[in-house]
Amino acid sequence: MLFSMHEMSLASNLLEMLRQEMEKHGATRLIEVRVCYGLLANVVPESLEFAVMALTEGTPLAGAKVTMQPIPPLLRCIGCGCEFEPGEARLAVFSPCPQCGEDFGHSVLRGKELYLDSIEVM
Ligand SMILES: [Zn+2]
């Protein structure tokens, strides 16, 4: 199982947000949490899921279902301004523009985010 400090710290931030949300709604038990992550966010979903499980063990948040929802990247070509979704997510930043063929220096409009999408509580 892949496991890193990076995911550990991301998970810890997410859980902090989770606790605040639950407090706001007076919830005591977490049933399911859905996390959206951009494919360029440098997140390994399995590792993040595992980190969340490890950090919630023995707490009221334990046992919740963690769903990781990927967000495909959206780039804007530096050459012609065209906005496009690159095919190969891993190398997305270096994908060729479908209009002019430029393959370097695009701006990332979407795909680096990481946030709590929804939670189900009791
Ligand atoms: Zn272009």
**Unreliable spans:** none
The assembly state of the depicted protein chains is: single chain
CATH topology of the largest domain: hypothetical protein PF0899 fold
Distance between the termini: 31 Å
How would you sum up this structure in a few lines?
The chain is of the alpha+beta class and 122 residues long.
Tell me what the structure shows:
The protein has 122 residues and is α+β, with helices and mostly antiparallel strands. The protein has 2 domains: 5-72 and 110-121, hypothetical protein PF0899 fold, CATH 3.30.2320.50; 74-107. The chain is 26% helix and 27% strand. The protein contains 2 helices and 6 strands, in the order H-E-H-E-E-E-E-E. It has helices spanning 5-24, 45-56, and strands at residues 30-38, 65-71, 74-76, 83-84, 107-110, 114-121. The strands form 2 sheets. It has a 3-stranded mixed beta sheet with strand order 2-1-6, with helices on one face. It has a 3-stranded antiparallel beta sheet with strand order 4-3-5, with no helix packed on it. Strand 1 (30-38), helix 2 (45-56) and strand 2 form a beta-alpha-beta unit. Helix 1 (5-24) crosses helix 2. The longest helix is centred in the first third of the chain and has 20 residues, at 5-24. It is elongated, with a radius of gyration of 17 Å. The two termini are 31 Å apart. The model has no long low-confidence stretch (mean pLDDT 89). It binds zinc ion. Residues 77, 79-80, 82, 97, 99-100, 102 line the site of zinc ion (ZN).
